[in-house]
Prior knowledge:
Strand content: over 45%
Number of domains: 1
Number of helices: 1
Order of helices and strands: HEE
Distance between the termini: 30 Å
Radius of gyration: 12 Å
Shape: elongated
Strand order of the largest sheet: 1-2
Largest sheet: 2 strands, antiparallel
Amino acid sequence: MTPNLASIKLFKRFAFVQWGELPNVCEVDGNLYSVLGLGLGLKL
């Protein structure tokens, strides 16, 4: 989720990039949050 900056930073450290975002789809304690889709392109 977007407020989890530590997790996002960790993924980006390993070259993951944002592939998409689902805005305001997760409700926690009455607050809506967006969910990010992060991916890593692999060369085969």
